[in-house]
Amino acid sequence: MAYKRSALMEERLAGARERILLATRALVAAGGYRNAPVTAVAAEAGVSTGLIYRHFPSKADLFVEVLTAAVEHELRIFEGIAAEDLPAPERLRRAITAFVRRALAGPGLAYAFIAEPVDPEVEAERIRCRRLFGDVFHRIVADGVATGSFPAQDTRVTAACIVGAFTEALVGPTAPSRDAVGDEDALVASICQVCLRAAGG
Amino acid sequence: MAYKRSALMEERLAGARERILLATRALVAAGGYRNAPVTAVAAEAGVSTGLIYRHFPSKADLFVEVLTAAVEHELRIFEGIAAEDLPAPERLRRAITAFVRRALAGPGLAYAFIAEPVDPEVEAERIRCRRLFGDVFHRIVADGVATGSFPAQDTRVTAACIVGAFTEALVGPTAPSRDAVGDEDALVASICQVCLRAAGG
Amino acid sequence: MAYKRSALMEERLAGARERILLATRALVAAGGYRNAPVTAVAAEAGVSTGLIYRHFPSKADLFVEVLTAAVEHELRIFEGIAAEDLPAPERLRRAITAFVRRALAGPGLAYAFIAEPVDPEVEAERIRCRRLFGDVFHRIVADGVATGSFPAQDTRVTAACIVGAFTEALVGPTAPSRDAVGDEDALVASICQVCLRAAGG
Amino acid sequence: MAYKRSALMEERLAGARERILLATRALVAAGGYRNAPVTAVAAEAGVSTGLIYRHFPSKADLFVEVLTAAVEHELRIFEGIAAEDLPAPERLRRAITAFVRRALAGPGLAYAFIAEPVDPEVEAERIRCRRLFGDVFHRIVADGVATGSFPAQDTRVTAACIVGAFTEALVGPTAPSRDAVGDEDALVASICQVCLRAAGG
DNA sequence: CATGAATGAGAATTCATTCAT
DNA sequence: TATGAATGAATTCTCATTCAT
């Protein structure tokens, strides 16, 4: 009976873990770090605060996992695109389009990606995530330079600029997107155009 | 004698005010909003917490002023450049160069500009500041399009992308600048190049 | 086992809540609003300050509840007396006697009833409470006038005067009660006499 | 020249002292103790905070003096009335009328008289003041009993009740006066009637 | 495993009082 | 005498974390 219960418990635990992550993501997406005190996460997930600490060593760890999970999936998509057998400019266009469309669909990710989560541990993870994104774009740009699609350039700088460019165009306050979300296609096209030009394509 | 004392008082007051602003700026630059509780600011400035509230109605106001002060000067320089009688691409290059050089000299500004200060009041000011920067670049890009220096494009999107690009290249975690600050000229040149290409110049 | 724990928890919670209320009441009775900062209440109740905020949204709410609780029971007694099938003068006599006796037994209530709690939210409640007391006496006096036990008069003014009269006689600084609590019966009789005469009975 | 300046200074000082007292009274009347921090008093009086401490040992002393001054004048009027060669009931009527009319004209006194000033030192003075008022009414009532105008009674209790009655009718929350200030004469008459009846006249 | 009451270290803010000028 | 900048203790409230059940 012990292992049987243990199995049930594990299942229940897994369910709780998932619910906690989802609740955290929802609260952060809705109102940022400040909107997600542990008690609120517990309430949203329908668990006790104590249970959160059974699944995560600290609040920072919980946030790190939420951020990582949010980024990981996108990253895999990007890496798929980056690895495709297509000209670099086309891959760049596709990667940016994918990111922008996904971000416009669910603002949570973009927010988490840009926002300063205040807690140093989480901030470190955010930096790591942005770097991962930068790496993908760096690979594409470097490829493009190697194959002659893009002119010679400091590919690190270009990759950083591209990540900054579409991020700001999406979530930044300078962004035109918020006001005119209506014409999403045009926005995506414009951002792609700018980023492609930035890489020299 | 009255005016002499008055002058002295003013001087001391100004001194304290200035010290508070400098302390805040230093702490924020070093570790963001969370690194600058009122007590820490007071300690850093060498004053009491109460004195901070004699000079600033609230902590948010203090932060807003720090941010505004940090941005205002740059903005004036930019506006001067934007208004110069030069081809748009050249103005764009100059504006970006000015920003990047200044940011590299004092990393505090760039940080303050990018960081999410959590407090809604301060966040509002940050948004305003980014918009102001965006406006300057929008003007240049729009000019360039009008005079044929740049191709037709969504100038709002381009402006946002440019601001995002050089900001990320400077302070973003994808940024190459942190590791290789040594070759500042090359970095500045690279960022300019990318941004000019982004505008289509 | 679940319900057992639940019961225990509730009991403990109720205990803490009760202890907080009692501590607040004791401190306010001893020295007024100023004598009851949250830290002092916590210390007196033997709990942490944080726990107070788990049970009460704010300090003002805590004070309001203390005041309300202190008044509510008396009020129910009064309303019972006011509704009795007796001549108005007799009901008036009984109501005053009940209040005075209870107040002499525990001076806390009278204090809370009279004291200006400085905080607007609490002050509003105090006003409401006095009005409720006034309403009871108004009803009795109006009844008396209707049935001819009392002469025609401005019953609102009379009710206010009666509440003010026995309050002052009890807790007011003009009060003789403090010095000569010994002869409680005589004091009660005197106050009743004065108030009955005031109503014209 | 020394004494000449000294004279000037004294005069100026006296002026300042008066202005401080007036400013305090105005602020307290407008919004109570909480509305009169030392800095606000200084601003209202047009002096520095430091000067306040040259004239008054502490804030509590300042408040005590304001309260005392506010009460003293009324008290002298009452004592005049109490000493008049008239029947006790008439003197009682006159004293109450005088108080009520003055209080209705300027709500500041009544407020100061009833309010709990929170600070123990000031509270002590408030108690003393109420006692002084009580004494006046006690003298009148005792006279009335001695001369047969009023029946035998506990004159101390009656005096306290009368002070409480007209105070509550004036400033208390049960009070009808606030809503229907229009008919001042009727209110004054009603209060007098009730209080006279209370004394048995 | 699960609960949630309890903790207590901080955070922002206020204000009576002092003291160098 | 007069100033008002400066102090810092006190106050209300928050929230990550723990632990007895």
Strand content of chain A: under 5%
Helix content of chain A: over 70%
- Count of extended strands of chain A: 0
Find the biggest chain interface.
A-B, 49 and 48 residues
- What is the average per-residue confidence, as pLDDT of chain A, rounded to a whole number? 84
Identify the CATH class of the largest domain in chain A: Mainly Alpha
Distance between the termini of chain A: 65 Å
Quickly count the helices of chain A: 9
Structural class of chain A: mainly alpha
Query: What order do the helices and strands of chain A follow?
Result: HHHHHHHHH
* Major sheet details of chain A: none
Rg of chain A: 20 Å
CATH superfamily of the largest domain in chain A: Tetracycline Repressor, domain 2
Indicate the CATH architecture of the largest domain in chain A: Orthogonal Bundle
Number of domains of chain A: 2
- Low-confidence blocks of residues of chain A: 1-11
Shape of chain A: elongated
CATH topology-level fold name of the largest domain in chain A: Tetracycline Repressor, domain 2
Provide a descriptive summary of the structure in words.
The structure is a homotetramer of 201-residue chains. The first copy, chain A, is an all-alpha fold and 201 residues long. In chain A, 78% of the residues lie in helices and 0% in strands. Chain A contains nine helices and no strands. The longest helix of chain A is centred in the first third of the chain and has 30 residues. In chain A, helix 4 packs parallel to helix 7 and helix 5 crosses helix 6. Chain A folds into two domains: 56 residues, Arc Repressor Mutant, subunit A; 142 residues, Tetracycline Repressor, domain 2 (Orthogonal Bundle), CATH 1.10.357. Chains in contact: A-B, C-D. Chain B binds a DNA duplex (21 and 21 nucleotides) through helix 1 and helix 3.
